[in-house]
Structure formats: structure tokens, C-alpha cells
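During the second half of the funding period, the structural biology subgroup turned its attention to how the target accommodates small molecules. The most pressing case was calcium ion, which had performed well in the primary screen but for which no bound structure existed. We therefore specified the complex as follows and requested a full 3D prediction, including the ligand pose.
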Amino acid sequence: MARQAAERVSPPPVEPVIRWFGGLILTRIRTLVPGLCALLFVVVSGVPRSEPLSTSAQGPAAAARNGAANVTAQRLLNAASEPSQWMTYGGNYEEQRYSRLARINRDNVKQLGLAWFADYDTNLTQAGTPLYIDGVIYVSTAWSKVYAFDARSGRQLWQYNPKTPGEWIRNVCCGIVNRGIAAWNGKIYVGTLDGRLVAIDARTGKEAWSTLTIDPGKHYSITSAPRVAKGRVLIGESGGEYGVRGYISAYDAETGKLDWRFYTVPGNPRNGFENEAMRKAAATWGGEWWKLGGGGTVWDAIVYDPVTDLVYFGTGNGSPWNDRYRDPTNADNLYLASVVAVKADTGEYVWHYQSTPADTWDYDAVSPMTIANLTVDGKKRRVILQPCKNGFFYMLDAASGKLLRAVPFTTVNWADGVDMKTGRPRVRPEARFPVGKPFNLAPGVQGAHGWHSNAFNPETGLIYIPTQLAYFPMVADASFTPNPVGYNLGLDFAAPFTYYRDHPELPKDFVGYLQAWDPLTGKQVWKGEKNQGPTGGALATAGGLVFQGGGSAQEVRAYDARTGEKLWSAKTQTAVLAAPITYELDGQQYIAASVGGNPLGGYYAPNYSRMLVFALNGKVQLPPEKEFTPLPLDPPPATASADVVEAGSQKYSQNCAACHGDRGQTRGANFPDLTRTPLLHTQEGFDQVVLKGVLADRGMASFATVLKPEDTEAIRAFITARANELKKAPPTPWPPGSPPTQPHTEH
Ligand code: CA
């Protein structure tokens, strides 16, 4: 039964919101800014939606729940022959995101319509790939929450909330997101922002076990999807921008006990090495890298290959980004920016391929990987395909790690190709941006490709890649000192604004598009339309179709898999970044997409984070969008001296830009645009938030340990000055033509 528009609940009353914000500060601010109540109303209007749980449900839903998430080794190994299901993050162990379902195909896809939708209790960005198992859809949302929905009706069966402390998001570079979950033997597994791995009873939604996977004294987080292989849950972590040491862990799926862990970079040699792989890696490092952790977080791709019995994973950037401050000897720094293979049973090192030696560009090698059986140069091989953040498409032999292909799949200017004998990129020296010599990098730190899922169709032999064309000016921070909170990059992160202002002739694009790519020829076969910022993940089906989230274009769409002709689309009222999935139930094929993200409307705009499920002849309409008036740009007068504003700019760049964006102008859905915040009107109100932490439960923790009152005054002066500049002469957004969102969108 489809949920109709009339079923939407009303927003909550304003009163609880006022209590939440804290009486005193609110009273002060309300006298200054009459519009604030409306603002707060909007902020939470998507929040408390309580869906009645049916505890005595009869019929198909109840039947499904009795054997909830009954995923076994045999079912996962044969996932391709059970196409009615979507039991694991990438659809099957090979992570091809290809379904043999073909009831929806090129001939009838135009009849696809909404069958049901279900709202989430958040207006934040959604990145989660749903799972579909035996009549139930499971999906993770912002704040690492998990929902279970009856796949026929969209009725919510349960919601699990790990109750992540709001202040933990100070350790999170790129959004309060979660990209997915795993299922195994009656349980659903989710990693939480604050570093827990939680097993949830799939029938009840109650916690079965929970284990802390990180050192809580360090700035780790989890946004990626766990995978299950051979009774173990595999999970990595994020935090490479904050000074941590990366690793991947395997936990017993039944008990949560740690089985093995593989660190991706060596620790302090004085403490000895965990294994021979770390000893070898240490020979590729100089300086005292361990003091800032080294980096190499495993923040996205993890693939278990049942044929080789290996686990492949990608590792992230070095910490700090700028390798001069990580390792003055400019050595390779294994196993940063690499694909690494370990034995599934022990975590023992087997092989690695480092795509970016001596990484200094945030070129994580963690983008999704796909396994395929291809005939390469006349020889049948099992290969790993990875379009990498550094702009090269790599094909590696799965058993040995041998490099078979390395071809740029978007604009690349940091290297003139890859030497196929050594596997090393031919780096252009100027791309290493020596101090005083900025470099307009492509792909920029946004990457050629982030976490957005690829799909591989074994019939067309094509891989469908959500691709980015992106520039970013790399400007070395001439006087880097590690920051106990916030980013540790060794880059002047405030420089892009001034750099592009002073160099208007340089390209500044940041756009995304889907492209079909032939992994054997290394050639593009077709490309879809561009959208601003990242584009969404892909799903390939035997119906000759590729479904894709259209990013900020706010639609789910279907392309002809061979020609790229756009055959269907549906407007979603919000950005679509996660890849859709497909499943079959009662002889009907469905397409399900978790949507949400509003880079153009901003934090205060109403958002529409939901599960959308489409079927042939679906007739449900989304309710009309709510009316919304953006907050006015109405700062107090700028009275501070240029010196104070400059000091505020530096402090802002180090402590605030990660979330609130370049010069306070972020208007993404996740964080407020500070040039428009009413808090600019009073230092007392500003400090209540920044130093006293009154919004900690919303994610804005106190910065009292790193900022003094004169610092916050300077920061407020800087944002105020910036807001006045904007008001006087609204400049081109940065970078021109792109959505005013976070400059850095990966981990
Ligand atoms: Ca990174």
C-alpha cells in the first residue's frame, strides 16, 4: 500500500525547540533577530517523526521478519543467482552492482513511477546503499541510524539509533553521513560516527552487541559500510585529515570479538612492528611520521574475493596531506594511497599496489573497487577495477596485484601518465606545489571519483563511473604547526578564494557526470549530463539499463547501458548521491533509492530525505515542496581592524572551514551558512555556541580547548567582514559555477 501525501505528519511545535536551544541565549538573540524562531522551526521541522511500530503484525511483513536478514555464506556466494535480493553493499561479493532482473527494461522503463516513499527523521545528506532481504529494506541514514521498512508498503518496521554524541562530528571531515550496512545470520551491522561497530537484531531493531573499534582519544570516525566474509565483519575508519593511523579490522560476526587487524602504515619503530609488512613499510618513511599518525585510513572500499580468498581494501591520504610536513625525505610512504590485499582468515599481508607514491594531494586510493573476469591481452584474468581519486583508472590482477591498465578517465594534470613497468606515475614536479608556488591541481582534492558507487555490466563489459572534473589550488602552508583539533593538512585551506580571485583565467570546475568506460581499451564509451558537484552512484541491470542518482540535479535517472541515451528520470526534490538498488517481490521489480542532500538550498531549507521506491506503473506523487524564504544576508556593520580580520581568517581556516566551508559561505545541507547566522549580532551569543558548546548535541561542540575569547572575536569579525563584502557586491560563488558546498568532499 502506498503512502499518500496526506499521511505526512505536521512539524513539531516550536516550544521544545526553544527549550533545546537554551533559554537565556535565545531570549537575547530573539530580541535582536525576530526571524530566528522561524529559523529554528525550519531546522528541526524534519526531525521528530514517530512512526507507529506494529508489534503484532500479521501477514507477509510478519513472515518476513521471522526470518529477518537470513543471510548465509551460501546465499552471499550465490548472490548473482538470487537477483530478487540485494544482500550486500555492492550487490554481490564482486561489488559489481549488477542485477540480472530485467522486468524493467529499455522498452518499458518510461512507465516507471513511484510505488511508495518513506520519510527519514533528518534533513541531512544521505549516502546509504539500502539492502533488500526477504521482504524488508534496511538502510542507514545520517547519524549512523538504521531503518527497516516493509518492502511492499514502506511501513517502518523499526529504527535503530546509536545515539552518537553530537560533539563527535568535530572529528568528521565530510558530513554526518553513513554509506551502508551489512547483513549476516539475522543481524544488521553498522559502523557509527564515533567509531563503534554495532550488530542489530534484524527482527527487532535492538542492539545485539557493540564494540569500540577506535582509540576514543584520537580523531577517528566511521562512515563506510562494513562487509561480512567467512563469519567476520570487516570495517575500516576515517580520520586521515585529523592525524590518525589507518587500519582495517575483522570482528567475529556473532560475538563482536576482534579477530585480526592490519595497520596500513607503520607506528613508531621504537615500539616494534606488528608484522613484517610494517617493517618493510617503515623503510619507505622518513622523519617522525608517527607523531601525526601517518594516515592511510581505510574509509571506503573493502572487497572480499571468494576466488582468491583475499580481502582487498584501499588506503587514504597521508597525514598531514602535505608530505613535506609528514616526511621531509619525500619517500614513498607505504602503504598510503594504495590497494592492499590480505588473507581473509588472518589479515596477513599478501600484495599491494601504490597508485600515488609520496602522496601530497589527498589522493586516497579508497574509491569503490569491482572484481571482474576479463580476457586481458589474450589471457583470462580475474581483475580488480578501480577508478581512483587521483584520476587514473586502474586494472590490477586480483591474485598478484600486477598492474594491467592505468589510464586517465578525467582531466589529470599532476602526472603525465603511469610507467607500466614500474607502476609509478610520471609526476610533474610543479604539481608538488613548493612553498610560494601554488598549483591549480586536477583532479583537485575533491577527487576524480569519491565514494560514489560504480556499476559493472558483464554483458556490455562496461563499467559505469560517477566521475568528477575538479580543480583545487594547492597552496603550501609555509608555517605549519599541528592543530590538536580540526584539520592537519599542511595546506593553506583559505587560499582558494584569493588564489582564484587573483587568477580569474584559471579553470575552477567542480562538476560530476556518469560515464561508461571500457576497462580493456581504456576509452570512454558515453557520458551522461553534468551536474554541479559530485554525481550519484550507479546500478546496472540486465534490462539494458543503468540507473543513477543525479547528484544536485535532484533526480533518479535511467540510461541505455550501451548508448547512454537517457530513457527515464524522476524528480526527487533533493540531491541523490547514493546508488539505487533493485529487488523483486511478488513478481514485481522495484528500484529503491535513498535520497537526501540539498547543496543549493542550504542548511535551513526544508529537505526531503527519504526512501523512494519505484515500480512499473507506480502512481504515487510526492507532496509538494514547502515554501521557503532563505535567511537574509543581514550582518552587523564590519568595524574590526584589518589585522583582527586577518587573524580571524587564519583561525577560521584552521578550525571552522572543514564544516562551514570557505569563508563562511557553505550553504550545503549539513552545516549553517555563517555569513547569515543571527549569532553574528552578538559576541555573547557567538561564544555561547563556540566556547560554551550549547549546540553540542547538534554537533557544534565547544572549541574552548583550542580557541580563546580573542580568537572567537576575531573569527566573528572575519565572518562579519566577509558577510558585509558579500552584501555589498555579491561575488561569484567559489568556485564559480559550482554549488557553494564544502570544498573537500571526501575523507
Ligand atoms: Ca582524504
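Two results from this model are relevant to the next phase. Residues 170 and 643 are 27 Å apart (CA to CA). The longest helix spans residues 709-728.
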